[in-house]
Amino acid sequence: MDVGVVSRSFPQLSNKETAQFLAKEGFKWTELCFSQTDSNYWVYNGRSNLETLTNEKSKEIIDIYQDHGIEVVAIGVFTNLLEQDEKEAEENLAYFERLMEIASTNNIPYVSTECGFIPGKRGINADTYESAFDLFKDRLGQLVQKAEKYHVSIALEPCVLDIIPSAKRTVDLIEQIGSSHLKVLLDPANLIANHSEEDMFHYLSTHIAYFHGKDRKVNDAYGRAIGDGDIDWPLFFQQYHQYTEGIPFIMEYVNIDNCCDIRDRVLQFDKASVTTK
Question: Looking at the domain covering 4-275, what would its CATH class be?
Answer without folding.
Answer: alpha beta
